């Protein structure tokens, strides 16, 4: 009857968690999440380095391909009857690559918004936890103040009124002792008071970082979209300088794509390690940061039958003391009021205070129960380990598609511009974009007709 | 110090809620959510009818356009030197329309997944609420049984042991009375027992409907994607029968798009009315369905300072009775055990039971507090009024784009196939799809070259 079933690691977490990890000396590293350990850091850096290796390899392959094409088959004018081998499909492969890149951009936008959703779920769970914790502190403070005020004023008045009958004064003193006991017990319940860790601060930090991450990705995605569209435009208008500029931009975006791929892969691997068994790590980290006892943290982070409520005894003692105050006040009302009518006012006021205190006490019991805070913890984990991880995997797919598409485009673009008919170089360069879209398609079609001579030849 | 700020209507809700509504006689209808009222139903049906009107209008416009084109400018062979006015841009506008349709499909997939997310948030909130409600019932049942067992066995044994000393027997009887009072108070707390409404059932029903809605949209989106791709293929291969078939399919999808647009618009309008002030409607509906008192429902649905806990008195009485049992047991232990050592065993067992009952009582206080259930209510509202509404608006945008794109395509396609060179009719019809993708593009390019003769003419 504890919390309902909460976070469970997904299949992706298991899959990524089972991938082998190695440090810089290629010795295997255990896949438990330990970001403070040197070997684990090296394992994550190695994932980033793999992306760097991929970038290097693809650059070498592109260079080798282009050198081979340049040196072995110097491009002649395409009007020669024998078509350059493969030359007919240069523009085709370039366009296909750019379209795949555009599909990748769609996937990237989806992944970016999914990641953003996950982070906002995480920070809203942190804000909710912060609200609960500060509500506990506030409620304890308020109740303690109210009880203290009642002890100072009403109980003192009552003692003065009843001063002639010692047994009634003794009962009043008993109520005072019980009230002080309740105050003391309640003060021990404000467990988050003075703790240096603020979930609000963490949520703000997370949102701040996420804002910039989101913006950076949107800019990268827009940059790649622009490169794709302007490259298509350049091919359509056969504008040599636009295609050359876009080739250079493609190179820049290729480097950025591999870079983001490395970061995403390392983050996804680290996140999968964290998400496969988050409780231990979060427990230890929170204990270090807050200095709270492990019984309290275990209660909130695990929240199952096996862990007993660490506030149980304080709550029970407060409850008994409150019940005792009530029966003492009732006794006083029965005994004292007929003889001392002036005792009625402070007694009624005390009963009112007692009722409010009991209401606050029930609210406090509800707030202190692990259910609420554990639900926030589960929501934060689901945001991080389901939505954020899923978003990262989509971004990874985007980076992969974009790296592949850009590498293909980089192989084809120089060949495509080399195949542009010489006259179009100077003549058309200045005129692109001055006429409507119809002529763009016309150019694409006309350019295609020339570049794909072998296609049209059999007609 | 109640629940943290929960659901707030979004800007979209306000915007849609402010749109004027009218019934079939075009009299204005107030925009409060009242699905059981005839006029409100008519207002929603009118929104669907508007989409039907849109479909009719677009069909008439398409037919008029095609008749005008057919009758006024009978398509001659495109080889004539004077190009048919506008004929050069037929394929262009067709391709642009299909590409816009494809972008719409992407938006539709996003909207569909967003709606699905919202519904799953709604049903998970319902499941969570169901868990809380059944946990309350279960906990009350368990505690009452445990207390009843203690009264039947340990307290009876104790009375038998202490039968020689009447004042101790009286104290035991006092404890028995208090235990019975606790049992009675606790039984009143299981407020959901015997209520005919099960959130679990509602969640299952919602998930069931959502599953089919999701599937239907995915099928519609895939159908539209296939129509777009095959139309492009047909244009590229100049395959007359494929283009004719796709024109018919486009007509079918156009009707489906307008139909889905009407349903989405009506749902969005109804949802915005519901979401602008959901509390009253949900309160009344739940009261009708469950027959629970309005104090209980107000407490859980509003959960603010102004509404007091309807279980406060029962909880306070139970708490006092438990404290009294405790003090009576302590008194018995002090007085009876030195004289009757055999009383120790039942007394210890009773104290154990009392401790467990106090733990259960604190858990019950936490479960009964409005915080948890109100948070589920807020999550359900956010799922329905934020995610589902946002998803519906994206689906609306998809339907609009798709209706526009298909209408343009339907205007252009018959003109495009009329412009296909006659020889390609029979010759190519059987051969599409038998050669690779390269020839598709080739066809698109070659077809484009012919269809866009005016573009190439100035060369």
Cα end-to-end separation of chain A? 78 Å
Number of domains of chain A: 1
The quaternary state of the protein chains shown equals homodimer
Helix content of chain A: over 70%
Tell me the number of strands of chain A.
Answer: 0
* Biggest interface and residues each: A-B, 53 and 54 residues
Q: What is the mean predicted local confidence, pLDDT of chain A?
A: 84
Tell me the series of helices and strands of chain A, N- to C-terminal.
HHHHHHHHHHHHHH
Function (chains A, B): Probable chloride channel.
Pfam family, one (chains A, B): Tweety
Membrane topology (chains A, B): Multi-pass membrane protein
Subunit structure (chains A, B): Homotetramer; disulfide-linked. Homodimer.
Account of the protein in words:
The structure is a homodimer of 459-residue chains. Helices cover 79% and strands 0% of the residues of chain A. Chain A has one domain. Chain A has 459 residues and is an all-alpha fold. Chain A has 14 helices and no strands. The longest helix of chain A has 72 residues. Chains A and B meet through helix 3, helix 9, helix 10, helix 11 and helix 13 of A and helix 3, helix 9, helix 10, helix 11 and helix 13 of B. Chains A, B: Keywords: Cell membrane, Chloride, Chloride channel, Disulfide bond, Glycoprotein, Ion channel, Ion transport, Membrane, Transmembrane, Transmembrane helix, Transport. Chains A, B: Probable chloride channel. Chains A, B: It catalyses: L-glutamate(out) = L-glutamate(in); chloride(in) = chloride(out). Chains A, B: Homotetramer; disulfide-linked. Homodimer.
């Amino acid at each position: 009857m504890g919390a309902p079933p909460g976070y469970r690691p997904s299949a992706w977490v298991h899959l990524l968690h089972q991938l082998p990890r190695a440090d810089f000396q290629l010795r295997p590293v255990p896949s438990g999440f330990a970001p403070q350990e040197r070997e684990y850091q090296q394992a994550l850096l190695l994932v980033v380095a793999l992306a760097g290796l991929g970038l290097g390899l693809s650059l070498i392959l592109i260079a080798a391909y282009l050198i081979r094409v340049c040196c072995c088959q110097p491009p002649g004018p395409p009007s020669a009857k024998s078509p350059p081998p493969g030359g007919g499909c240069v523009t085709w492969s370039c366009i296909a690559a750019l379209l795949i890149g555009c599909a990748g951009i769609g996937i990237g936008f989806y992944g970016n918004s999914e990641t953003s959703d996950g982070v906002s779920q995480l920070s809203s769970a942190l804000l909710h936890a912060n609200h609960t914790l500060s509500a506990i502190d506030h409620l304890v403070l308020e109740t303690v103040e109210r009880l203290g005020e009642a002890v100072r004023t009403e109980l003192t008045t009552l003692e003065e009124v009843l001063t002639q009958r010692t047994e009634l004064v003794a009962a009043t003193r008993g109520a005072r002792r019980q009230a002080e006991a309740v105050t003391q017990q309640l003060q021990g319940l404000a467990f988050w008071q003075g703790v240096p860790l603020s979930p609000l601060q963490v949520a703000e930090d997370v949102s701040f970082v996420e804002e910039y991450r989101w913006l950076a990705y949107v800019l990268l995605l827009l940059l790649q979209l622009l490169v794709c569209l302007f490259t298509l435009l350049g091919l359509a208008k056969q504008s040599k300088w636009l295609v050359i500029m876009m080739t250079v931009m493609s190179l820049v975006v290729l480097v950025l794509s591999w870079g983001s791929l490395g970061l995403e892969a390392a983050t996804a691997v680290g996140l999968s390690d964290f998400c496969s068994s988050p409780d231990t790590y979060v427990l230890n980290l929170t204990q270090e940061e807050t200095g709270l006892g492990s019984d309290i943290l275990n209660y909130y982070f695990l929240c199952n039958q096996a862990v007993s409520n660490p506030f149980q005894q304080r709550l029970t003692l407060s409850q008994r003391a409150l019940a005792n105050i009530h029966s003492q006040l009732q006794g006083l009302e029965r005994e004292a009021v007929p003889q001392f009518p002036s005792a009625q006012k402070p007694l009624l006021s005390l009963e009112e205070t007692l009722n409010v205190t009991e209401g606050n006490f029930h609210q406090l019991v509800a707030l202190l129960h692990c259910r609420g805070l554990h639900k926030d913890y589960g929501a934060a984990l689901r945001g991080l380990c389901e939505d954020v991880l899923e978003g990262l995997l989509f971004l990874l797919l985007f980076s992969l598609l974009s790296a592949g598409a850009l590498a293909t485009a980089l192989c084809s673009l120089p060949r495509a511009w080399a195949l542009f008919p010489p006259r179009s170089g100077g003549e058309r360069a200045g005129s692109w974009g001055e006429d409507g879209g119809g002529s763009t398609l016309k150019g694409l079609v006309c350019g295609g007709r020339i570049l794909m001579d072998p296609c049209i030849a059999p007609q």
